[in-house]
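During the first year of the project, the team set up a workflow for recording each protein of interest as an amino acid sequence followed immediately by a discrete structure-token representation. This format lets reviewers and collaborators read both layers of information side by side without switching files. As required by the reporting guidelines, we include two representative entries from the current panel. The first entry is reproduced here exactly as it appears in our internal archive.
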Amino acid sequence: MQTRRSFLKLGAGAAAMGAMVPLSANATDSKKIKWDETHEIVIVGSGFAGFAAAVEAAKLGAKDVVIFEKLGVYGGNSTLNAGQACFANTDLQKKLGIEDSAELMVQDQLKSGRGYASEELLRHSAELGPYIYQMTKDCGCVYRDHIINTGGTSATRSHQVVERSGAGFIRPMLKTARKMGVKPKIRHKFEGLITADDGSVLGIKVRKGYHFGHEDSGEMINVRAKRGVIIATGGFGANVSFRQALDPNLGSEVGCTNARGATGDGLIAMLSEGAMPVHLSFIQSGPWASPDEGGFGYGAGFSLYNFPHSIAIDRNTGQRFMNETADRKTRADLEVQRRDKDGNPNPALLIAPKHEAQKDPSMDNVLRYNVAWEFDSVEAIAKHFDVPLAPLKQQIEDWNKYVKAGDDPQFGKRMNMSTGIYLTAPFIVQRLWPKVHYCQGGIQINTKAEVIAAKTGKPIPGLYAAGEVTGGVHGVSRLGGCSTPECMAFGVTAARSVMKA
């Protein structure tokens, strides 16, 4: 659990970095600015956080809300996730007989954060969960009548939209926002904040008509925000030089699930204005990824569905090497250790029973695109992947005993999602190798979504942030399905704060 004392101690290095930056590096005489556009509220980024902020602001009476998106389509990185969101104590959980609470969700996340996560921010997000759940349904999002068990949780709480993609949230929210009068605009790249002499944020610089990869394209304009600016630009996973500077192990040879626009524009701009950086080197890799496809891919959905009732095998030993539903960091760290005798990657195998795997639509896609393969016997798996046969047979036999007993003595896996699901032929097998997925680090905010200045420790007037661009919420490791509700919760919070300003 992160106390104020531990937070100050752990963030000392980051604070020192931020303190070297002036509170307002680009201060401007507001009387000399030529404003090309003026809006009540300016939102940068059209992902979960941006659209949640827009919808909430409109609900609260805002008449002139604009969203700027630098790419040619809306949604950014948010469209690429598996369409999951962890909510506690919902009507669907009650219908399915699942007992859960916001407090239990917070405790799970604190454990995953390994002492670095902000209990205050996590609790704020978790308590807003039921509101976000209902808000998305009001926007037209449709959830499956099934809840997924994600790693590191003590209750099954990951609700999933029927599209099984973040687009299942983005499209209905975009449609709703437009109906409410919000003005979303594509090909508008955020270039920086415009601030006054006192450090307060007046507006932003935008490159209108921008085309990704052509950095000089478009026309620079100044956009005034009468109430405030909300930065919701996401993380920096696709910015290889930036992430490698923070973690030398994350160079170009490491895959990434993020959209190409996840380059950290908003983060870098806020740092230049003196915002407090937090936990920038905490960069999470997804343990459900496949090395046999690019980006997020189909394999992620397949493994996410099948981890609870399947086993992950080390190809050198034919044995399990982890709890397949442990938190992401635990699994990713163990997966990346799977190497051959020369130290080269030797990706682990996820072995799932077809009779259960076929209940999820992702199975057809992973087979069609050679991300996974079907085998009629254990012998066929061992031969194809050069796995010791005897240990593999014994491991599968042992696993089925664990399923029958409802207890995993090997790694303590929670077995309630495996009841009656035995590992029998035919099998569907996918390789596992982590990919850079989520940046836990970013700029510091408070429970009002106000951006905190490193120099003063106080909010920067007129500046708010939400989503992956912020840091300190999750700590070392984020639990699966928890970014979507957190992004939306702080998007909603930012809108509420702006409307009160």
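The second entry, processed by the same pipeline in the following quarter, appears below.
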Amino acid sequence: MTALEQYLGGLLDKRVGVIGAGVSNMPLIRMLRAAGVRVTVHDKKTPTELGDGYATLATLGVDLVLGEHYMDALDEDVIFRTPGVHPRFLQKACERGAAIISEMELFFAVCPCPIIGVTGSDGKTTTTTLVSEILKHAGHTVHLGGNIGTPLLPRVNEIEPDDLAVVELSSFQLMGMKRSPHVAAITNLTPNHLDYHADFDEYVQAKTAIYRHQQPGDRLVLNLDDAVTRTLHASGDLFCTSKTQELANGVFLKDDTIFIAENGVRRTLMPAADIRIPGAHNVYNMMMAAAIVQGYATDDDIRAVATAFGGVEHRIEFVREKDGVKYYNDSIASSPTRTIAGLRSFQQKVILIAGGYDKHIPYDVLGEPICTHVKSLILTGATAPKIRDCVLAVEGEHPPIIEVADLETAVREAQAQAEAGDVVIMSPASASFDRFKNFMERGKLFKSLVEAL
């Protein structure tokens, strides 16, 4: 009997609640019902709003608590928290004795193979993908998931002990986690998701849960160039990255060459210029990935991926060239620091489309980079006034600023302003939840609008 089967068997005499009937939770609900577990699904949507999902749930035979007061009747023995629900909303259920768990935490408990986890404010998707590609090049069977890819828990019985699981972890997923991966990495920590977290300290506490429960022999990878992550302390082995200092244990950059050091002995990995994906931030991502895969892949595996990997979808993704104008999709840039990294990837001033959902994070850091790197600024969404004000607060010249109603209008306006040789990039510096389900949906719409020009 597998660990998952044993766990599911222990639920047969319990009442189980699942918060959220979205696409990401459906595999969990199906798995629970297939094991014979009694399930109550709580969701804010009405039957009409759930659409086809309502019929699916009815077929699965779950109990439903729907509508505005969906959280009022959380009286189950075990409750699966969806990442979007802050643990503070489950305090009463905890006090009553309910066991609060998440799909990700259960995966950590029952996964038979080593887990590699990556989190951070910026770069985690690219870093996680690079790690996965390097490990596959090294011959490992890799299961990619978490905040990227597909849910891993329903596929855990397909995972062998010699495989590797690589997971990207958001602060939402990490809140309350009592398990940590064998290798944990934090790319950097800057203010983000302050619409969800009480403050930056709570956000940092959530992120650092990725290593808080590591055991002796586990490894933590930190970016020593980040003001927050360099103050953290590992409970397991520490391996770091830096572009500003030589390290005795870690991956560092010197004279535009990447080195790997172990116990004070360094070796040359590769020139930074050989990394295929552009931008200084991707040198960081590659260095972080190289540090993470130590012990699982060779330097040749790292070099092979670094020189061939073209980047992830929605991250400075080239869409097309039309009338001499190049269009790039950077929808994954949901914070100012990500957009700043994107702007610095180009040698010329760009036409920037930005704005979106307001996560209540500061935007003042964005003003100077926009004035330096942007030829024309097109804004839309709830954060448009914040971005506009931070640009106008910079002394000196400002790019023309145009505010429009939606992304469709923004793309048309960008085309109208662009001349041959220009670069247009959508890099919102904001989340997508005002008009889209996620940044992927936003990016796909942008690409379809550009293709239709």
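For the second entry, the following points were noted during internal review. The mean pLDDT is 92. The chain is about 30% helix and 20% strand. Both points are flagged for discussion at the upcoming steering committee meeting.
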